[in-house]
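hey so i finaly got around to running the thing on 1,2-diacylglycerol 3-glucosyltransferase from Paeniglutamicibacter gangotriensis Lz1y. pasting the sequence first so u can double check i didnt mess up the copy paste, my clipboard has been acting weird all day
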Amino acid sequence: MILSAGVGSGHNSAAAAVEQACSARTDIDEVQVLDVLQVSSALYRDVLAKGYFALVEDLPWLIEWGYDASDPPFRRRGPIDPWTGINALPVIRAIKRFRPTAIVCTHFLPAQLLATLLLRGVIDAKTAIVTTDYDFQGLWLTSAFHQLFVAREEGRVELTALGLPTDRIKATGIPIAADPNPASARDGSGPPMLLISAGAKGGDYAEAVVRQTLHMRSAFTATIVCGHDDALRRRIEALVAPASNRYHVLGYTTQMGQLMRRADLFVGKPGGLTASECMAAGLPMVLVSPIPGQEIRNGDYLMEQGAAVRCNSAATIGWKIDEVLRDPVRLRSMQAAAQKTGRPDAAVDVLSALLDGPTRPLVVTRAAQKTILDASERRVVATDLTGPSSLVRLIEKTEGSTVALLRAEELVVLQKRYSTDNGDLILRREHSPMSLKWEERRLFRAMLRGEDELQVRIEGPSAPCGTLTE
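ok and heres what it spat out for the 3d tokens, dont ask me to read them lol
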């Protein structure tokens, strides 16, 4: 089962890419894709989806503030809020009906829900969180999951420095759909081709881009994709009518993969999926009008890789594009950097790592979450901590996978009750569950998964020999 949320097109595009990868595997019998907003109330859907884009248009500074405010890891440690919980009921019913073996989330909303269901023992499926931007954002972190997939190696390093176990974090790239016509390629004999995109919903910035290209001195052709914005398409068609031999104006198209492989330079916003598709096609980018927060950070990464340039003023867009086109060596270097950055097999890698990976979820206790948050706010690497507040991992003896991340002080209680002679723990299902504290009951329910006992070993800075004493 693949769960997404239609806040923009990127999350659903990633879900479609994973669905496509499922069809290539013989061990997957059935796939169901669900946009969780489509089964929620109209009010909830409008507040999240339409409200977000209204803020992007009118109050972008508020989007940036919200992104930064929600970025610290595990800032939100409680259960999902009541309003979200009520709107999640149709999703829970859909999961119970389908009874999936594995669930992939391409948005943080269903990821938060799945963590709650795992800890309550409602589901027994393997769960994956698949991020859809190049920079990791703290909202994606949850208290229980099987695998967390990030877009780049720096994100994996960041999460492991926070204390998350290395066996649960993978850098796979952002899932994109496979190109059905991979033979399409650039034609180096003609002038460079620009691919100017207004995004799926359309954006007025595209008109400013096209207007600026009319003043460029370099030879070029341009394909302009206006998305679902018919009014924008008509305005641009009228704008380029005097030079129609150089411009090809489209509305919404399902052929973006082929267009990207034929183009020499992309001009548009650095959404996670768009950027990932460009990199997989070896297509460098001229970034315009990025959304504050995730798209700014996406752009920073692409420029760091040498695969993009950014234009911060509408008055210089044409000049910026011209500077790249007039330097063929630079353009080829940017194309090579994009090709090197691309991860076209991300969806396949996500499925393989999830289905072949650990069967038990990783549980991060609330005390461990607080340690990670506090360390992050003090700019301390959580894995360097020692003493009662340091992080300790419980490693399942059979699979060798990390099943719990907790504070050292929490381990003392478990050792008193479940310690063995060799320093391991044998966690047992209690006949009287009320003898355990609430947090311990959640931990046991997720780790034992219906079994009576589980043997684990202890790893962590406070337990170098596998034990921890009070």
